[in-house]
Design goal:
About 70% of the residues lie in helices and about 0% in strands. With about 350 residues, it is mainly α. The protein has a domain of about 230 residues: Orthogonal Bundle (MetI-like fold). The protein starts with about 25 loop residues before the first helix and ends with a helix.
Length: about 350
């Protein structure tokens, strides 16, 4: 029989019983998460509105006459320039241009490309697929490699593996992306290195690309160098964040308690330390998922990968202001949405955030 002064170890004495309608119950927790998500969604809508306003005025600050830049210095008489400005909507007052731009954007009409003579929304829809293939694949590999190496480096802090992996990742992170891409092209594709010609030099597919299952292998062959370039530059962020977070968790009392209970080292790491250390990486992963939509401009330009990054670069070269505005808004919107999802996910995963 338990003495009155003792506490039954099977009874949670410091936690309020959680009923379905209680303040600490499941229904209350769901309402809290819902309110938090709605507040974040409202902030995201406000941020997207600010992006629309900033996009319009940002590209109007570029020096020079867009009509003259579009003609690439081909001499035109004033009447022809006036007609061109009228077609581009540049002869209207600035406020009228802004209202027209906002109205079209709210109806998902991003305008018409001056260069391609096609709706910008159609161009972006065509380029999203290749970008998702390239940056999505690179992101999965970078996250997996970075988290694995960061976990091992932190758990063996000060070891040779820790010093080597951290140093290598910092070196690759500091290397300019376009320079690394050009270097890999010269070594593995352009006929300069000792083993040239292994991988294609440009594009996502060849003109004579095979059909059926072989087509996937054909695209994967083109994907190797761009994906390798992207992973080499990006994975260091996940390694360093995971390493730093896990080093903080190793010194916590619950890790010491788990070891004192007799758990093996790998069990302490896998069951206790790593799940808590993963929380700070959630925001970083979601942010990079947002950038997946925008793609990597440098990588896609070096390898002529037909994604959003190359489309944006071609629009700058044009210049094609409608395409620049459209791609810029898509990238910014994707980052805002992913940041919002990261905040909500962090709120759901970490009970300390909900109770704060």
């Amino acid at each position: 029989m338990t003495a009155p002064s003792e506490v039954d170890p099977g009874t949670p004495f410091d936690v309020e019983p959680a009923g379905p309608a209680g303040p600490g119950g499941e229904r209350g927790a769901r309402r809290t998460v819902l309110r938090y998500a709605l507040a974040k969604a409202g902030g995201a809508v406000l941020s997207i509105g600010m992006v629309i306003v900033a996009t319009f005025f940002l590209f109007r600050l570029i020096p020079g006459d867009p009509a003259i830049a579009y003609t690439r210095d081909v001499p035109l008489d004033p009447a022809q320039l006036d007609r061109l400005r009228h077609q581009m909507g540049l002869d209207k007052p600035l406020m009228q241009q802004f209202l027209d731009f906002v109205g079209r954007t709210l109806t998902l009409d991003l305008g018409t490309s001056y260069e391609y003579k096609r709706p910008v929304a159609d161009l972006i829809a065509e380029r999203v697929g290749p970008t998702l293939v390239l940056v999505g694949t690179g992101l999965v590999i970078a996250v997996s490699l970075g988290l694995w190496q960061g976990t091992r480096a932190a758990w063996k802090h000060g070891s040779r593996f820790d010093r080597f992996s951290t140093g290598l990742s910092l070196v690759l992170w500091s290397v300019p992306t376009f320079w690394l891409g050009l270097l890999l092209l010269m070594v593995f594709a352009a006929g300069v290195g000792p083993i040239p010609g292994i991988f294609p030099t440009r594009g996502m597919e060849d003109v004579d690309a095979p059909d059926g299952p072989l087509y996937l292998l054909h695209v994967a062959h083109h994907l190797v160098l761009p994906c390798l370039t992207l992973v080499a530059v990006v994975y260091a962020q996940y390694l360093l964040v995971m390493r730093s977070s896990l080093l903080d968790e190793i010194g916590q009392d619950y890790v010491t308690t788990a070891r004192a209970k007799g758990l093996r080292d790998d069990q302490v790491r896998r069951r206790h330390a790593v799940p808590n250390a993963l929380l700070p990486t959630v925001t970083l992963v979601f942010i990079h998922i947002g950038f997946v939509v925008g793609g990597a401009v440098s990588v896609e330009t070096v390898y002529s990968w037909p994604g959003l990054g190359l489309l944006f670069y071609e629009a700058i070269q044009g210049p094609d202001f409608a395409v620049m505005q459209g791609t810029f808004m898509v990238v910014c919107t994707a980052v805002i949405v992913m940041n919002t999802l990261a905040d909500v996910a962090y709120h759901v995963l970490d009970p300390r955030v909900r109770s704060a």
